[in-house]
Amino acid sequence: MPAASLEVRSLSAGYGPTVVLEDVSFSVPAGSRLSILGRNGMGKTTLLSSLMGLTRRYGGEIRVNGNDVAGDKSSERALKGVGLVPQTRDIFRSLTVEENLLVGIKDRPRSVIQEAYDMFPRLHERRRNLGWQLSGGEQQMLSTARTILGRPSVLLLDEPLEGLAPVICDELMAAFTRLAASGEMTILLVEQRLESALDFAESVLILERGQIVWQGSSEALRSDHSLVEHYIGVGSLH
Ligand SMILES: Nc1ncnc2c1ncn2[C@@H]1O[C@H](COP(=O)(O)OP(=O)(O)OP(=O)(O)O)[C@@H](O)[C@H]1O
User: Which controlled-vocabulary keywords does the entry list (predicted)?
Assistant: First the structure.
């Protein structure tokens, strides 16, 4: 599936009776990159989970290439090209790396696993290791590779660098940048590290208490220190 556009209109969503996202609207052209910023607890994970169909929706539309998927279950959204790499890196801990990857290939031939190994050679070295034996960075690579093998046209990455050593972060960001450059996926990245988020994406949105408080280009945000300090925190830009 080639990259798809994403359009979100007046989305409100949450958990049970709790509304977290309120009237969220934005669009991402096919093949482009959006970073989602905001302090802890502002609704970033809830936004990605809602795009994947994992929260309760109170209203609004989610259009993938113009088709509204907001009423679809998450499994249906996955078939329509939405792929989430969750913050929890939910790999199967008692399966090997290779078995985990096989789960992600959907109906593609087994040989496509090589795509994951090309992307992350470390996974090839660890292919017979069990999920629980992997480091945090390797788990992130596996979780990402498994989702990517399903060829999503809209890829949602939730804080992929969290808790990882700088050298691993660089390796992952390089892989995400290569993916983005391939033009095969539209990518949304939730990331606390401002520099990484701005380097990665052309455009940015900032969430505060479940609402979008700023949207614009990465360059505009980078050059406006007062905006960054107001919404994200002092000293975020170096
Ligand atoms: N399963 C849940 N049930 C009820 N409320 C939840 C649930 N998950 C998150 N929340 C609440 O929704 C709000 C937004 O949380 P969310 O995890 O989306 O924020 P976030 O911006 O991703 O934060 P962080 O950067 O810490 O991951 C918070 O007030 C949080 O307590």
Answer: Amino-acid transport, ATP-binding, Nucleotide-binding, Transport
DSSP-derived letter for residue 110 is: G
- Residue 2 Cα to ligand 1 middle (Å): 31
CATH superfamily label, 6-90+153-231: P-loop containing nucleotide triphosphate hydrolases (3.40.50.300)
Query: What ipTM was predicted for this assembly?
Result: 0.96
Domain boundaries, the chain: 6-90+153-231
Sign of dihedral through CA atoms 72, 17, 37, 122? negative
For residue range 52-63, what is the model confidence (pLDDT) as tens digits? 999 999 999 999
Q: What is the DSSP string of 24-70?
A: EEEEE-TT-EEEEE-STTSSHHHHHHHHHT-SEEEEEEEEETTEE-T
pLDDT of 227 > 60? The answer is yes
Neighbours of 125 (CB within 10 A): 12
